[in-house]
Write a structure and sequence with these properties.
The protein is of the alpha/beta class. Helices cover 45% and strands 17% of the residues. The radius of gyration is 22 Å and the shape is globular. The structure holds fe (iii) ion.
């Protein structure tokens, strides 16, 4: 009898152990997720383990592991990467009222395979000592001859720029988008490997303006507040608004605990988690109804682009890459 009871207890314990555990594969840096995952474990008792790496490498690992993968959730940055994971048939469509109401329509997959969890804007950073008031207007404006020799850009290999160009194709049509990107390339002094290098080049006067993600500006200014750098919000009046993108996540098809995985996503998109999840990286909450940080508030209000559904960022990715290659954007 005693043996029987202990067997039942052991079985119950084993079942529980798998139900109360989740594995996240993520391309986010450990310091951006560690505390929030700890908070979830404290609140719910669900143990979270995670594996970090580059998005493309994690997708390859997931494909290689197949059904044997221990992972429940894939978390990464940029809708382009999330789209790619869904395109590779890795993500399960999730139906959740909470996720549908907390994550705006344009910031999630139309089939529920991934959801944005924080927002970043890809906007113009400029040197106020070198750019006169009124000179900056729109993304298209940076293609004008008057910006010749004044721009710095990040490499076209980065998914952030591929998504930005995908947005331009969607908003302006292929022909006009190509003219714009071609103009940028002609006006560019140097192509850099990352956003921070672009910002430093602008601050040092090597060029006058560049296009970067907002949190890189936030990080750099926190370290060196005296830099001659400012953010500009383009395409505000009678236009489509500033290009925004997300960090986000989806539930894996091979997860053995899809309900638990969905609950974690719902929690991450909820009011309590949103505060720390977005703020730790100086990003914006996924929904305007949630509070933003003092830091991002100080950069001023702007109209974000809402007409470009981020699901399309992935669909137009190939076209964006082709377009950039055609205008020799390195
Ligand atoms: Fe980034």
């Amino acid at each position: 009898m005693l043996k029987y009871i202990s067997l039942v207890l052991l079985a119950a314990f084993c079942l529980n152990a798998s139900a109360d555990e989740l594995v996240v594969y993520t391309s986010r840096k450990e310091h951006l997720i560690k505390d929030i995952f700890k908070q979830y474990t404290e609140e719910t008792g669900v143990k979270l383990t995670y594996k970090t790496g580059k998005a493309a490498a994690l997708i390859q690992t997931l494909k290689a592991e197949g059904n044997k993968s221990p992972a429940d959730i894939f978390m990464t940055v940029d809708a382009g990467n999330l789209w790619f994971a869904s395109h590779e048939e890795l993500l399960e469509p999730i139906s959740s009222k909470i996720l549908r109401s907390n994550v705006p329509f344009n910031l999630r997959d139309e089939k529920g395979r991934w959801f944005g969890l924080s927002v970043r804007a890809r906007t113009i950073a400029y040197n106020p000592k070198k750019v006169a008031k009124g000179e900056l207007t729109t993304y298209e404006g940076l293609a004008d001859k008057k910006w010749k020799g004044r721009l710095c850009l990040r490499t076209s290999k980065k998914v952030y720029n591929q998504s930005l160009v995908a947005m331009l194709i969607s908003e302006l049509g292929k022909k006009r988008a190509k003219e714009v990107v071609n103009g940028w390339v002609k006006n560019t002094v140097e192509i850099f490997p990352n956003d921070t290098a672009v910002l430093k080049a602008v601050a040092s006067g090597q060029c006058d303006a560049g296009i970067v993600n907002t949190y890189y500006f936030g990080r750099l200014m926190k370290k060196s507040p005296k830099l001659s750098l400012k953010l500009f919000w383009p395409n505000q009046d009678n236009s489509y608004g500033v290009h925004v993108n997300v960090s986000g996540a989806g539930v894996l098809k091979t997860s053995k605990n899809k309900e638990g995985a969905r609950k974690l996503l719902e929690w991450l998109a909820g009011r309590k988690a949103q505060k720390s999840f977005a703020q730790v990286n100086m990003e914006y909450p996924i929904n305007k109804l949630f509070p933003e940080s003092e830091e991002t508030k100080a950069w001023g209000k702007f109209k974000p682009n809402k007409s470009f559904n981020l699901s399309s960022a992935g669909k137009l990715q190939k076209e964006a890459i082709k377009l950039m290659r055609e205008v020799r954007y390195k």
